[in-house]
Amino acid sequence: MRQHRILKTALALVLVTGAGQAASGTPTKPGTATTSSAGQAKPATPPKTTAKPPAKTPAKNTAKTPAKTSAKTPAKPPAKTPAKPAVTRPTAPLPAPHPVSFKNGDPVAILLLGIDRRAQERGRSDTIMVLVLNPRQNRAKLLSIPRDSRVAIPGRKGLDKINHAYAYGGTGLSVKTVSALIGLPIYYHAEVDLAGFVQLVNGLGGVTVSVKQGFKYEGLTYQPGVSRMNGTQALGYTRMRYDDPKGDLGRIERQKSVLEALGKQLHTLRGIAYAPAMLNIALKNVQTNIGAGDAFNLYRNYRPSLKNVERLYLGGKSRKIDNLWYYVLDPQSVKHVSAVLQHEAQGGKR
């Protein structure tokens, strides 16, 4: 029984990370964008954002443009283009976030980060999501934020890609940046190393995904149709952006399909046969400030909310600024989605 409880606690975090497994897939009505014609942009030299810029050049995201990394050209951050696209900035300090009671089923907002550590020690946030669970209404909202979103990062000059917040200041700065963007205090977070995602998929014997568009990515080939993928294949499937007509939004949709398939497989587990492997993966690859007791209550009290998940998207367009590609957010879309999340976090009725 104790081992079964530990398994539930560990899987709670994994299930929350894959919370879209029971989502309707219907975005909120106004202010969102499921696709964007500008999202078709395919830069000839797509930036891979090394995420280790020195402190003096906060907007240095030029892994494939070496001329920009030269000490002779340090003064070209996005701060020099303030009059270009409008971007939502934090205008006032946010209220101090505070813990909620998982035992009582209080509405809660959780920042979910998928971290890619392939190229850097600290890594970069390859996946950024905000999950708002509302057990009072048995529903949830899941916002996927494009990693190239051009935003203000607290304490940094100018505008930068939102996924650089993690490179500059880890989970703490990511929480502050996302909180400022959507105007919602966030206290809880779960950070998952993408290497753990690969191990999880392999530990479950693979994942079955319906591939809508064929493509090649880093030596891997994906054909249209139903495909059984191992961990490496599944991760590559969720990473590709530049060959997708929908750009980063298409990538988010593929992440959703993989998480749904993975969530279904986790729900079909029988007994505790996978307990040792799953627990080991969770302990090594999941970092969170949700304690073991809260994780158990999260699994027990919030699961009904995960059966009614509405996915939210931020409208915007892909634009090239200073030879870098950004996803420029639509301020009205940000305003609307923020209001939806804030309302849900307060447990309000429709």
UniProtKB/TrEMBL annotation:
Residues 124-266 form the Cell envelope-related transcriptional attenuator domain. Residues 21-100 are annotated as: Disordered. Keywords: Signal. Residues 1-22 form the signal peptide. Residues 41-74, 81-91 have a biased composition (Low complexity). Residues 23-39 have a biased composition (Polar residues). InterPro entries: LytR/CpsA/Psr_CW_biosynth (IPR050922), LytR_CpsA_psr (IPR004474). Belongs to the LytR/CpsA/Psr (LCP) family. This is LCP family protein required for cell wall assembly.
